[in-house]
Amino acid sequence: MIKFDIKHRMTGEVKFTAEIDCDESADISIKLGLAVMWGIKNGLDLSWANLVRANLSWANLSWANLEGANLSWANLVRANLEGANLVRANLEGANLVRANLSWANLVRANLEGANLSWANLEGANLVRANLSWANLSWANLSWANLSWANLEGANLSWANLVRANLEGANLIVGGQRSDGYRFLLIRDNDGVGFTLRAGCRSFRSFDDARTHWATTRKGTMLGDESAALVDHLERMALAVKWIEPAVVATSRPRAKASRAKVKKPAVRKTKKRAA
What we know:
Blueprint: E1 2-7, E2 14-20, H1 28-41, E3 171-176, E4 182-187, E5 194-198, E6 201-203, H2 206-216, H3 221-239
Antiparallel strand pairs: 1-2, 3-4, 4-5, 5-6
């Protein structure tokens, strides 16, 4: 048994000293993980703790108070964080593959670059969370509150967004093509540019997207579906005032009215007979 200190992420003061069954030469990530579990077992306060790179894979942290904790680059693969308090927690770069974050409180949490593929975020509170460049592929975000969340650069391929609250978020869900390609519009943080994502493809303008599918899918059902979904995203962007009305154009311009003159039928002249 050795002793290991858990410190405050801001002040560096010792929050508590854990007694862990670990070799002195073990990696600090292992020591941190064991110290956290010792703290959980003894009902100690882990809020605002410095837990950078902690190894907590498969750990049971359900309903734990981790408010403000620094868990950046931590290993939380398959960890159970159901109902955990992660308000303002720093999870930048953390590995949360297949982690259970259902109904967790992640208000204003920093998840930039975190790997959340296949994670369960059902009902999670992600209001104003930073999810920029996070991997959310195949994640379950049903009933999650993503209002005003930052999703710039996030990978949402095959993510479940059923009944998710996206009010104020920089994301518009455009729909899905018949082959499974989901069309998304993600606004840049500067509020000026945006990225249109369709499956694995990204475009920086509606015209670029239209040109691509007019070239690669011309005359096909998938090409027609793609054009319709791009049109829909453009109109949604207009509705929420991401773009100005002058920018909007349809993928199929109306045919110009013909200016050809209509030929009048010839009038047959008849000679009048003398009376």
